[in-house]
């Protein structure tokens, strides 16, 4: 799955940060990629899609939009959904 490239409209996972006061714990949420960024062109003039994206995070109580979200496994980052069924 690491060879996947972000594209607008793809469903991804987002790990929320939770609230500073601890009322809301960090939670894994569904999100949709709404915007892309591109890396600087290489010496051949080829530009690739960055792992940093804009997303719409879907929560039980509503949605919020987050810009410049980095790819990874930490709080505040997005990742590809994992297949967990057999």
SSE blueprint and pairings:
Layout: E1 11-15, E2 28-38, E3 49-59, E4 62-69, E5 78-79
Antiparallel strand pairs: 1-2, 1-5, 2-3, 3-4
Describe the 3D structure.
By secondary structure, the chain is an all-beta fold. The protein has strands at residues 11-15, 28-38, 49-59, 62-69, 78-79. The protein has a five-stranded antiparallel beta sheet, with no helix packed on it. The chain starts with 10 loop residues before the first strand and ends in a 7-residue tail after the last strand. 9% of the residues are buried.
Q: How do you describe this structure in short?
A:
The chain is mostly beta strands.
Give me the count of strands.
Answer: 5
Q: Given the helix and strand composition, which structural class is it?
A: mainly beta
- Succession of helices and strands: EEEEE
Total count of helical runs of at least 4 residues: 0
**Approximately how much beta-strand content do the residues carry?**
35-45%
Mean pLDDT: 90
Gap from first CA to last CA = 17 Å
Low-confidence stretches: none
Radius of gyration, in Å, reads 14 Å
* Biggest sheet features: 5 strands, antiparallel
